[in-house]
DNA sequence: TATGAACGCGCATTGAGCGA
DNA sequence: TCGCTCAATGCGCGTTCATA
């Protein structure tokens, strides 16, 4: 068994995931897809590694030719090829791989320093590598990642390794102005002092192989619960009524219930609700509230509180929604790494017409989308502020931290709109809170307050028939359009699909508002 | 009067849930 | 992946109170 870097990191994070990695590749893949949400973030936009390569322009970069590695002896062959590049004293070696009898590591960049030894450069597509706490400790996962690499390089490179380990990541202060200079957007930080000792690594390595060679039954005996009970179901979708689906339940409480052999929501007793699931002081927590409501029946509506909240909404109402793009290397002017850019919006305006004596509602729709080749969203924000009528209304969104966050950024970029955007934020109502505060509770929402879960229960609107049916697809397509990759009929159809998708999002919010009004009437 | 258990307060940290 | 918000909990520290 070769212990690779990713296996080592997995083993420390979640031994069970590592077990599947070695013994059941299919399940391992399934679990990973589940954990990462199935969205392929790495595949779009210019990669950070390309930008790092530009950083080394002027130096000789050796690429390891891995085309004909074969399968059986691939680690050894990789090692031989990489050692050759080292012997030729290349300035920079990209994606070298080194193996001992048991360990294998693939490095991002090895860079020759003035002493003619090699520094390790691990590239991360991240804005920060340290926790936001007092000591600014290096993120755990990065510690294990780089520590393992250092350990293997010590064993394999000998005197050619400088023992200097750098993390190479994105400068979150960077803002794009025209062509990006790699020096400005890439940061390199020496992290050798933050790493694990060789002793610590060896202690872990001593157990990895034997643990991962256990039968599943024996493995589960040794690791009965390891943090995420998703694995408890052996890679299968857990039963719908698993305790993992109790809203707001924290890991410790899940573990406590699991150890008391309470796997399903129906196993939970009154004592559990008053004990484990309640706050430390015995008061109602989110999870005990969820359980209490669930016991009352399929649907529970706090009509009075909802009425009170909806009464604060003053016409005209603007239901609006953004689509954004965000990439490690920004594609829009004035944006930073992973900055979110509003590239599309949809607004449904509802006004009350009192002229005929009986109040009637007038609904109008407006939208806007990025043009091919556009490198700033000024046009879109200008139009937005006009369509939202400069803040003179009530604004309804789902999950207001997202839209309001974007508005704050826009007001910094375009000070001329700051006043309007601040007014919009101040007059924003978050439709999601009716569900996240469990004022409108329905078992069929499947423990979520996301509008996408609420929608099929309350309305007959469906995303199944749409060409673009989720935010991830939308982001990819919007990137293609902005980059000018699409032309002619393909471009035309993509724009139509995106506009349809975004319009449906705001129309869905309007429908939910209407349905709730009927229910509480 | 010295001591330590118990309490309460504010700040810091962590984690769930959400969006793209 | 990132960043935001909110809830829950942890931590430090000073105050209070019972007791020897």
TrEMBL record:
Segments forming domain DUF2779: 318-445
Domain of life of the source: Bacteria
A Pfam family matched in the record: DUF2779
Listed InterPro entries: DUF2779
Name used for this protein in its record: DUF2779 domain-containing protein
UniProt source species: uncultured bacterium (gcode 4)
């Amino acid at each position: 068994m070769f212990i690779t870097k990713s296996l080592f990191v997995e083993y420390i994070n979640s031994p069970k995931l590592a077990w599947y990695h070695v013994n059941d590749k299919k399940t391992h893949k399934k679990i990973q897809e589940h954990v990462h949400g199935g969205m392929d973030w790495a595949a779009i936009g210019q990669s950070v590694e390309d930008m790092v390569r530009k950083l080394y322009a002027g130096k000789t970069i050796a690429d390891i030719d891995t085309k004909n590695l074969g399968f059986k002896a691939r680690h050894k062959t990789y090692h031989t090829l990489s050692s050759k590049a080292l012997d030729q004293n290349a300035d920079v070696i990209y994606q070298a791989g080194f193996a001992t009898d048991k360990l294998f590591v693939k490095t991002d960049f090895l860079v020759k320093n003035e002493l003619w030894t090699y520094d390790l450069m691990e590239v991360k597509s991240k804005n920060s590598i340290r926790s936001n706490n007092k000591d600014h400790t290096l993120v755990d996962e990065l510690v294990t990642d780089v520590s393992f690499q250092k350990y293997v390089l010590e064993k394999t490179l000998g005197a050619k390794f400088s023992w200097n380990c750098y993390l190479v990541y994105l400068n979150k202060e960077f803002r794009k102005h025209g062509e990006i200079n790699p020096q400005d957007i890439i940061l390199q930080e020496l992290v050798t002092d933050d790493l694990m000792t060789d002793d610590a690594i060896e202690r872990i390595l001593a157990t990895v192989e034997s643990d991962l060679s256990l039968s599943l039954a024996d493995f589960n005996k040794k690791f009965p619960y390891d943090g995420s009970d998703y694995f408890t179901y052996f890679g299968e979708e857990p039963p719908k009524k698993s305790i993992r689906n109790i809203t707001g339940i924290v890991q410790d409480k899940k573990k406590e219930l699991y150890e008391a052999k309470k796997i399903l929501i129906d196993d939970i007793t009154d004592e559990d609700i008053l004990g484990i699931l309640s706050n430390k002081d015995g008061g109602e927590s989110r999870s005990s509230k969820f359980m209490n409501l669930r016991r009352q029946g399929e649907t529970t509506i706090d009509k009075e509180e909802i009425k009170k909240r909806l009464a604060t909404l003053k016409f005209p109402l603007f239901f609006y929604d953004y689509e954004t793009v965000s990439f490690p290397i920004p594609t829009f002017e004035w944006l930073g790494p992973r900055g979110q850019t509003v590239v599309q919006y949809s607004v449904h305006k509802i006004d009350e017409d009192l002229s005929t004596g009986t109040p009637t509602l007038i609904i109008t729709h407006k939208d806007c989308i990025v043009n091919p080749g556009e490198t700033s969203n000024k046009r879109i924000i200008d139009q937005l502020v006009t369509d939202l009528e400069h803040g003179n209304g009530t604004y309804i969104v789902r999950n207001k931290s997202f839209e309001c966050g974007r508005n704050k950024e826009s007001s910094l970029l375009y000070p001329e709109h700051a006043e309007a955007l601040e007014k919009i934020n101040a007059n924003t109502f978050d439709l999601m809170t009716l569900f996240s505060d469990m004022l409108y509770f329905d078992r069929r929402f499947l423990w979520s307050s996301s509008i996408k879960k609420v929608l099929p229960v309350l309305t007959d609107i469906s995303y199944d028939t749409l060409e673009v049916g989720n935010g991830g697809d939308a982001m990819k397509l919007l990137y293609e359009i902005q980059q000018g990759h699409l032309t002619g009929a393909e471009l035309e159809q993509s724009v139509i699909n995106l506009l349809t998708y975004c319009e449906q999002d705001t129309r869905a919010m309007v429908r939910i508002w209407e349905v709730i009004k009927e229910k509480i009437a």
